[in-house]
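Q: Given only this backbone (61 positions), what sequence would you predict?
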């Protein structure tokens, strides 16, 4: 990663290096996390999922 790399550059790089199956798996994983965070509002579960997202390198705020 360079200092002047943009999000668009990262998307283009991902398109060239990832297979359609890997992209699908990543999107499914993200959708599952989003669904869980949205519909499981028990504070302990919600916080655990939120912390897992950060640990996985997913930025949410």
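A: Predicted residues:
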């Amino acid at each position: 990663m360079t200092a002047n790399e943009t999000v668009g550059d990262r998307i283009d790089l991902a398109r060239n290096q990832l297979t359609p199956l890997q992209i699908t798996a990543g999107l499914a994983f993200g959708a599952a996390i989003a669904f869980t965070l949205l519909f499981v509002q028990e504070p302990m579960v919600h916080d655990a999922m939120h912390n897992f997202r950060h640990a996985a390198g997913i930025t949410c705020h």
